[in-house]
Structure formats: C-alpha cells, structure tokens
C-alpha cells in the first residue's frame, strides 16, 4: 500500500500562499493573475511526472537533457535579450527561459549516471561531460543561473561519496582562480556588480541603489511590519523589482521581522523535509536526485534573500515559489513534483 507524502505538499502550498500575498501587493493586477495562471500551468508537468513514474522518468532522462541542451543552444542564436542578458526564448506566444528546463534535466540525468557512486577518478568523466556544456551555455549570459547549476552539481557530488579532500581542493581552486583569473577578465560593470554588495553606500545612487533600497525597506518594516500594501518603499517605487528580485524586501517591509522569520521557517521546513525524504530513499540515485533538488532550491533561496539584505551579490535570482515569474515557478513546481514521485516510487528498482 502506497503511503503518500503529506508534509511536502502542505509546505509548498504555504509558500505559494505567501507568494500570492506578496505578489498581489508588490505587482500589478495583471502580474498577479499571471502568477495564478502559472500555478495552474505547473499542474501540467506535475501530472505528467505523476503518470510517468520513477522508472520511466529515469529512462527518458537523456532525452530530456538533450532537449534542454538544444534549447540552450537555440537561445544563444535566436534568444531574446531581457535586462541585458540573452536568456529568453520566444516560440509563438510562449516566452520562457530554457535554463529552467535545464535545471530539471541536469538533476535527473546526473542522478542516473552517478547511481553507481564514486569509484575512482574516472567516475568524474561522465558527470562533468554532462554538467560543463550546460554551465558553459548559461554562465556567460546568466551568472546567477550558473551559480544555481553549480549548487546542483556540488550538492550531488557530496552525496556521490567522493573523497572529502577532493571537494575541499575544488573549493580552494575556485577561491584562488576567481579573483586572480576570472574577475580581472570581467567587464568593469560586471566587477562592480559582484563587489558593490560589500558596501553599497559607496554608490547609493548608482550601482548600489537597488541593495540600499532593499535594506531600507527591510529595516523600515520593524517588528510587525507596515501592513499589506502599506510599505512606503515598496508601494512608492523605491524598491526595484519588488515582485521578483526583491520580493523578500517587499514582504519584510509589510510583514516585519515576524513575517520574515515565518518565511525563513517555511523554507527551513521545506529543506528539512526534502532531506528526510532523500534519506528515506534506499537507492543512491534517488538520494543524488534529492541532493540536486536541495542544491537548486537552497542556492536560489539563499542568494535571493541574501542579495536583498546586501549579504550577497545581486544576480537576479528569484525566490522559489514566492517571486513572480512563470518560467521559474513552473520549473520549481516540476522539480518538487519530480522529488515527490521519486519518493513515492522509492522502493521500485530499474
């Protein structure tokens, strides 16, 4: 008899509820209606995953990966530029980010090829052969997207049972290479965007404006907040992108410290439940999949909220289940739906 997971859907519904309240306050009525539409549309991939089941999902993983890779290549050639980055693809009436499909594809495909666990240096070849092309196609136009993909890969590598000193060596190599090799090659505006969060007040009317306004909004919310649609910074247009990049700031201003802590608790409970579900899965490939899901959602949540508080660079990453955005919302819902189905069928073998 199948015992269905209850806690995960309840936590997802709670976060979607927070998102709808925040978006209805910070965005236009049209955007709010689109967000509701996005929730409805997300039921389509969830239903498909539900009927596919664990075995067929893994079996079709390479086809999903190839499709995602082709869409990323197409974006480089015919993609639409939005906010200075060419990472949107328009097909007829549809406008979406292939990156969101690539996240799901990378998780399920890596889980399949890494199911045997680490067995020596040759075990790195296939995972890197799948990861690096996706990262290379994304990171030039979307540094934030590259961070999320790297979070997915790092999380899965930890569960892959690689020697700990390998992981530490990679972190040290990146820590040395980024400031000495990568950073000097960036354009001046890119360098400034990555470093301004350290002291945004040094250019409060220029490159630091967004994060300064985000901090002001969060601080002005106080303990209890200013109330629904009463946030002066948000409602008067001082906070940029209050329904996407800075939705945490908009929420904290209107709901206060209590509301911000409530949101953090919800995310903490979601991540804990996903970790428990992964631990309940007897197969390594399912554990790897849950690690990838946690890597994706964890990096997105940490980066979005951290950037709003000027603790991390601003990269334009949305807050999962809360920020406005159909592509991101449908992708996150599909990711969580995939995790749910894998957990449901965890005792099946392929």
Task: Give a summary of the structure in a few sentences.
It contains 13 helices and three strands, in the order αααβββαααααααααα.
Q: What can you see in these coordinates?
A:
It is globular, with a radius of gyration of 20 Å. It has a three-stranded antiparallel beta sheet. The protein has one domain (7-344). The protein has 13 helices and three strands. The chain starts with 6 loop residues before the first helix and ends in a 6-residue tail after the last helix. Helices cover 69% and strands 4% of the residues. α1 runs antiparallel to α11 (247-279). The chain is mainly alpha-helical and 350 residues long. A hairpin with a 2-residue loop joins β1 and β2 (85-91).
Question: Could you name the key traits of this structure?
Answer:
single chain; 350 residues; mainly alpha; 69% helix
């Amino acid at each position: 008899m199948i015992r269905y997971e209850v806690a995960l859907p309840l936590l997802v519904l709670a976060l979607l509820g927070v998102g709808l309240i925040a978006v209805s306050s910070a965005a236009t009525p049209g955007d709010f209606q689109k967000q509701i539409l996005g929730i409805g549309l997300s039921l389509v991939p969830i239903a498909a995953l539900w009927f596919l089941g664990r075995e067929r999902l893994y079996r079709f993983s390479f086809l999903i990966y190839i499709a995602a890779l082709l869409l990323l290549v197409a974006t480089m050639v015919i993609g639409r530029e939005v906010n200075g980055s060419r990472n949107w693809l328009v097909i007829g009436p549809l406008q979406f980010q292939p990156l969101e499909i690539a996240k799901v594809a990378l998780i399920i495909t890596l889980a399949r090829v890494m199911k045997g666990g680490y067995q020596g240096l040759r075990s790195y070849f296939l995972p890197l052969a799948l990861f690096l092309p996706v990262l290379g196609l994304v990171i030039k136009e979307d540094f934030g997207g590259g961070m999320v993909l790297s979070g997915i890969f790092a999380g899965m590598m930890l569960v892959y049972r690689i020697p700990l000193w390998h992981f530490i060596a990679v972190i040290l190599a990146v820590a040395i290479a980024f400031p000495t090799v990568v950073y000097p090659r960036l354009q001046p505006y890119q360098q400034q965007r990555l470093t301004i969060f350290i002291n945004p007040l040094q250019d409060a009317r220029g490159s630091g404006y967004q994060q300064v306004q985000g901090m002001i909004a969060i601080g002005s919310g106080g303990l209890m907040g200013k109330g629904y649609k009463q946030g002066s910074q948000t409602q008067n247009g001082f906070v940029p992108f209050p329904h996407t990049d800075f939705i945490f700031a908009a929420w904290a201003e209107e709901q206060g410290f209590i509301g911000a802590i409530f949101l953090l608790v919800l995310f903490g409970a979601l991540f804990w439940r996903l970790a428990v579900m992964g631990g309940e899965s007897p197969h390594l490939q399912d554990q790897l999949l849950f690690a990838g899901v946690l890597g994706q959602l964890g990096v997105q949540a940490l980066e979005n909220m951290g950037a709003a508080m000027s603790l991390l660079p601003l990269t334009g990453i949305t807050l999962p289940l809360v920020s406005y955005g159909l592509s991101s919302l449908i992708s996150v819902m599909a990711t969580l739906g995939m995790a749910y189905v894998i957990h449901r069928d965890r005792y099946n073998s392929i």
